[in-house]
Structures are given as C-alpha cells and as structure tokens.
Amino acid sequence: MRINHSLHSFPVLWLLTSLVSLPVLGAELDFSAAHQKALELPRLHSLLISHRGELVFEEYYNGKDRYQPANMKSASKSVISALVGIAIDQGLIDNVQQSIGDFFPDILKQVGEPGKEQITVEDLLTMQSGLETTSNRNYGKWVLSENWVEFVLNQPMVARPGERMIYSTGSTHLLSAILSRVSGMDTKNFAQQNLAAPLGFSLAYWSKDPQGIYFGGNDMEMTPRNMLAFGSLYLEQGIYDGQQVISSDWVYTSHQAHATSPRGQGRFYGYGWWLRDLADMLVPVAWGYGGQLIFVVKEYELVIVATSDSNPGAERRGHLGRLYDLAEDNILWPVKRAEQRLAQNHAVSAEKLPTDSN
C-alpha cells in the first residue's frame, strides 16, 4: 500500500493539530506525547509515522525541514541488503550461499589465508564473516587505507564463517563491491535504477572509496520521506505502488534473526537489519549512528522514521536511548493498546449479534 502523499500538500501545523489524534478503526491514537518528547531532544531532526499506508505524523525539529537529506550512516546497511536481494532476484548473484571467492579470486589468492574463500554472501549480510572488524577501533585505519576492499580481505580470521556476529562495515562494503562487479555498473546507479526509481525518488549524495566503489553501509543520504518509502516497501512485502520491487521471500528472510548481537539482551541481526525487543515485539530496525532509524512494525502496520544530528557533541550521550524510549513508550505501546482495545470491542460486538434460533 502506497503512502498517501495527498497529505503532503498541507502544512505541518495542520498535521499536528488534526492528525496527532486520529481514529484507528474506531480507536483513538494520540501522538501528542511523542511530539512533546521529541521537542526535548536537541539532536533530533525529524520524526515521521506511517500507519496502514497513511502518513499520520510528520514533524521536523531544530531547524530542519523535509527537503534536507539525512546521512543515514549505518542504516544504509539495510539498503545494501535490499540491493543484494534484488541482484539475486535478477540472477546476478546465485544465492546467499555463493562464496566471496567467486567475486574476489585474485585478492584472495594474494592474501593466501585459508578459510576466507568459505565466507558466503550470507555471512556478509549477517555480520558473521569471521574477519576482524573494520569498525570501531579499526575504522580510522580502514578508511585511510589506499584500497578498502583489500584492507577488509587482509584482516585476520578471528572466528569461523557463520560462527558469531562481528559487526563490521567492511562486510557491507564487500557487498557493494560485489554488486558493482556483477551488475556492470556502480552501486549507486544500480540502486537508482532498481530501488530508488521504483520508489519515486532520486538518490542524493553517497561517498566512495579510493577505487570509486560506493561506500557499502555508510554515508548514504536520503530525505526522511524517502526513508519512510523504503521502510514501507518492507512493510508491504516488497511491493510499492503495485510493483514487486524486492521479492517477499527476501523481505521475510531479512527480518528473521540470523545472528545474536553481542551488544545486549533482546538484540539480533537479520540481513542488514537489527531486530530489537520493543513493546514486547521483535521489531526490525534500520539503525544508523547518532539516531538515524527506520522501524518496521508489521504487527500494527507501522513505519517510523527518525533522523538526528550525527556529528559528535555533548548532547549525543544518551540521545539514542531517549529516542528508542520515545518510539517504544509514545508510539509503539499506544498503538498496540489501541489495537488491543479495538479487538476487544469487536469481540464484544460479535457476542451481542443476534443468532439464528431456527
């Protein structure tokens, strides 16, 4: 179901006064508390909510507007995953079990470390390659290197492929390099033709490595509305405006837990998507540094987008936690309770219906 963009012609004030409390099949859904909490976050740039295909809340904070693209940071890993799914649908990649040795034979031959040819596309998607991470303590050395792909593949094996989750942006950058090799075009053009264009927008800025490979899993920019369209694609099983953009099987598999996160209880990782325990649900989240988030809640047909300041600063500490609390306490729980009340009311109404006495 496509987002109803007819709402976009109205000013944001109209949205806040008329849509902050809206009927949901007879139940009242109120996002005024979410707005008030958002006003308390000095790093927050935007908050958008889509419910059942309708844009029901849209507000911009701290001087931002809907025309300004956000650097999605690591939320772009979910986009890279989508592009891999499309490449598999098109037969450019055999399947997720295909070895990276098929794509980087020369580099792996030079590296000469046994076991790396056993790494699969799925291992890269699920952060289980077994390679030492290029994120966190190694990130600076990696992005300052002359060849990012070679740097990743030269990292030592610290686990067997598929054994455990080791979060590394290098894994998704290898996927970007693979997409370029199999498609015969750069990753941005592949993404524009096969993902952005069907969703009705053009990709903005996206940085590249020294060899011209678009950064797989970081520094991709989209407007919040474009991020909402991307999340809605996953909510609707890969269909947007009547077109099957990504296979429904890929959407389903992407949102399954393939790896357990070492970052805390109740967190898992799918194909480029985090799975987080929120409001007693395991919710798929595209997560980016600093508070760039896309929540896809199939149970209640919700998509939530938040963007934030990603630059270092004194207010960054605690911002992400408060943003998750806002989403859980002021959006997810209210929607869940409203839907539960609605279901109870329907059940009571059904009991009161007259029965055939014959």
What does this structure look like?
The protein is of the alpha+beta class and 358 residues long. Among the domains are: 135 residues, Beta-Lactamase (2-Layer Sandwich), CATH 3.30.450; 109 residues, no CATH class. 37% of the residues lie in helices and 17% in strands. α3 packs parallel to α8. It is globular and about 75 Å long. The N terminus is likely disordered.
At the fold tier of CATH, the topology name of the domain at 5-68 and 273-343 is Beta-Lactamase
CATH architecture level-2 label of the domain at 5-68 and 273-343? 2-Layer Sandwich
Low-pLDDT ranges: 1-23
Order of helices and strands: HEEHEEEHHHHHHHEHEEHEEEEEEH
Spatial ordering of strands, largest sheet: 4-3-14-13-12-11-10-9
Largest sheet features? 8 strands, antiparallel
Q: Helix count?
A: 12
**Overall shape:** globular
**Fraction of residues in helix:** 25-40%
- Round the Cα radius of gyration to an integer and report it: 21 Å
Structural class: alpha+beta
Average pLDDT score: 90
Text of the CATH class of the domain at 5-68 and 273-343: Alpha Beta
Number of strands: 14
Strand content: 15-25%
Distance linking N and C termini:
43 Å
